[in-house]
Amino acid sequence: SFNYLRFAGQAPFVENPILYYGTLNTLRSSSGVVFPQNVNGFDRQSKMPSVMNYSFSIQQAVGFGTVVDVGYVGSLGRSMMWIRDVNSIPFGANFDPRNADPTNPAVPLSASFLRPVVGWNGINLSEAAASSSYHSLQVTARRRFVAGLQFGAAWTWSKALDYVDSDNAAISTLVPASVWNYGLAAFDRTHVMKLDWLWDVPKVPTSNPVLGMIANGWQLSGITSFVSGAPLGVGYSTTVGIDITGTPSQGARVVVTGNPVLPKSERTFSRNFRTEVFRLPQRGTIGNAAKTVIRGPGINNWDAAVFKNFPLREAVRFQFRWEFYNAFNHTQFSALDATARFDPAGNQVNARFGEFTAARPARVMQGALRFYF
């Protein structure tokens, strides 16, 4: 379905002429200007995309009704899809005097005149040429429900690498993809820790039925999540238009002069990484930043619930549930400003660069009454 969708709107089925300097009276008699179109293609020699999964694990009972599982889990993607523009404008084309606009030599010709294949704009070729890899250590511990208590713990330490995160993502055709596009996947999370538990609160021995109804039948449960933040690239903009690469087909990346990672003890609301290590790339260069250079905020979340059971008969009962999401109501930031802004002198002028910009929901509580029969 992806390939069919990419060919929707292909020439010669759709044309979008533009009328300049016309009026409604001249609309029907005017000749529209038709610019070269972007077209989509598909590599007819492409291989079938494939994914290889493999794992190895060892389980061991460690007592107290608990089983521990330690394993390695991996996955390799081969011949995955990416898009490559085979009609990219070369580096420096806008700087070449031969490409100056005759009517205004201070600016280059329109991009349509600078394409290697004249008469078309982008020629976006879908190819089964990408790859990906995932490697992880996975440890779980699970205690079955014994003596009124069950719990589970799962920790994954992993690394996911790829060229593109989805089939319709494009790669660079002017810089080798292994340099420009290969790196941590957007969904990479170094550490994922999950804890869950369910506890039947011990009964209070009493012969008083009213006291027993109030004091007994309680359950506590919860899920705790600790997750590393997503890998992020650092972008940039300028206060005035500056053509860095000389081509609209390939932008530059920011220049990194040092390690941007701050120790956790030095991080604040407005300073989550070293903003001073980023510089504006020089004209005619492409910068030196990798695909990702920092990580966004992680997850530290506690969900909990309290249940009270009211038995009526052997198989009939009411249950009152009170659930807490983000139970401790602590602030969990979810995004930060990772875009520098430079003036013509190269000074970074974005006052919010490195600052938190969004947070996950505050505590939510909900109650429910259930009838089991």
Structure in words:
The chain is mainly β and 373 residues long. The chain contains 3 helices and 21 strands. The chain has helices at 2-6, 177-180, 209-215; strands at residues 39-42, 50-63, 66-85, 100-101, 104-108, 123-146, 149-162, 183-184, 191-200, 218-227, 231-232, 235-238, 255-256, 278-279, 294-295, 299-313, 316-325, 333-336, 339-342, 356-359, 364-372. The strands form 6 sheets. Strands 1, 2, 3, 6, 7, 8, 9, 10, 16, 17 and 21 form an 11-stranded mixed sheet that branches. A two-stranded antiparallel sheet has the order 4-5. The protein has a two-stranded antiparallel ribbon with strand order 11-15. Strand 4 and strand 5 (104-108) form a beta hairpin. The mean pLDDT is 91.
Strand content: 35-45%
Low-confidence stretches: none
Mean pLDDT: 91
N to C succession of SSEs: HEEEEEEEHEEHEEEEEEEEEEEE
Number of helices: 3
Envelope shape: elongated
Compute the separation of the termini in Å: 47 Å
| Sheet of most strands | 11 strands, mixed
Strands, total number: 21
Structural class: mainly beta
Measured on Cα atoms, how large is the radius of gyration? 30 Å
Helix content: under 10%
